[in-house]
Amino acid sequence: MAKVGVVGIGHTKFGNLSEFDLGDIMAYAATDALEDAGFLEKRKEIDQVIVGNMASGLFCHQSAVASSVISKMDMEPVPAELVENGPASGASAIKIGYMAVASGMADIVLVIAGEVMRKVTGWTGTEYVATMLHPQAEYDMGLTLPGFGGMFTRMYMEKYGLTERDLALLAVKNHANGAKNKYAHIQAECTIEAIADGPEANVVNTYVAEPLRMYSTCPVSDGAAALLLVNMDSPKAKLFSKKPIRIAGIASATDTHCVHNRKDPLKLDAVRIAGEKAYAMAGLTPKDISFAELHDAFSILELAISEEVGFFERGKSFLAVRKGETEIDGRLPINTSGGLKSKGHPVGATGVSQAVELVRQLRGEAEEGRQVRDPKYGMAVNFGGFGNNVVAMIFAKE
Amino acid sequence: MIDFSMYDFKEPEIMAYKCEKCGTLYYPAPMICGKCHSRRDPVSDAHWETFALKGPCTLLTWTRLWNLPEGYNKKYLLFGIVQFDNGLRASGRLETDNPVTGMPLVATVVSSDERPGKPVNVFVFKEAE
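Structure tokens for the assembled complex are given below, as produced in the milestone run.
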């Protein structure tokens, strides 16, 4: 297989972009990625465009967004296709792009992912996102993704002794990082007094899906991100202005559609298996990872994912958070971008956004105060459904 | 004369499935038995036994959901995952004042027209009397 590297990154600010067209937002991020790679003028030499999106048909009443983006960027006749894998659509688009380059079918691939969710009300948006659940056994019951987040959190708390304050500590950490990230949806710090310890905490930090509170749940965001991938073994690799960041490992795995049908509903087998496959592909172990972006749509997932990919023993990750081990200057910084909690979660865009953060950190281009010291390997986990289709990625500084 | 008895009200039910070939129980049912690969006909359910999933069960976990999706005009709803005596599990609504993990419940089924689209059958787990 050819070595695959990232030579360009682009990212819109996440937030409320509902006045704009999804294709425009995606084209904006993609143009930034091409400019970053010094390849904007030569964009028609790209072999393939892969677009990641979860639900433009529902949120924007628009289908065939890959064709839309190509036209907006004046890139015809470059081939373009859409990849959909729920909230893991972004990382799946990277995986398909990786496969195209590694197989030798393409030398240069542009991956673009985006979502505009705020054209509809939160009431309707919650309904649309819930369509990824099992249609009869979960969706028809009235369940939602935050509902499963709440039930999962309760199981974890009752088994391992996690507290609501521990979840609030994650929000404080991630908001501190997101406050410094120019792309983050919520660029504001929060204090443990305001959201857990103080007398008004129950008002500031209300329940969403007990025991999950607002500060343990990601915002609803719009935005897009893009990557330019290249065959590092090809002479074309010399066409770009930036030194490639190598994709050392990328893998995905699936689990039961119904959460209740898992042998142990507290285990996220798809995360564990995707992680193991990515480590094997990269020839690395969890101890080699310098920092990680983990899909904290609900704060509990940052903890559970960090255990499934081997960073901590099962049921022990929150003890490391209490000690500050996952802060920027800690032993293993997690969600240096602010995570989904602070940076935001435009569902289909998130995997590519996580990859952009890996590249920024590995290049040493993160903002002051949230740059990890001399990172060599970054890992990201993009979580589809409620853990039923998960992608893990490991990027390496060459 | 029209025989209206055929339109008698039927209690809503949610069906579980048993592969007749190997005896494995399912809810909801797959198209292929994961154990013996016997295929299920989605129209006739041939070679698969169907039975109503209801009755005694145990609460495994629960949540009080405050941000309900489109169609629901309630302040909040309780949801839970339960396990039946036969080992099957199900997700659904919870109607109890003080939910506690491990508590015995009874699974009932109601018809709900809250979510967009046609009415659907929904589990409601209630306290055992």
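The radius of gyration of chain B is 17 Å. The interface with chain A takes residues 27-28, 60-72, 77, 79-81, 89-93, 101, 112, 114-116, 120-123 of chain B (CB under 8 Å). Further analysis is deferred to the final report.
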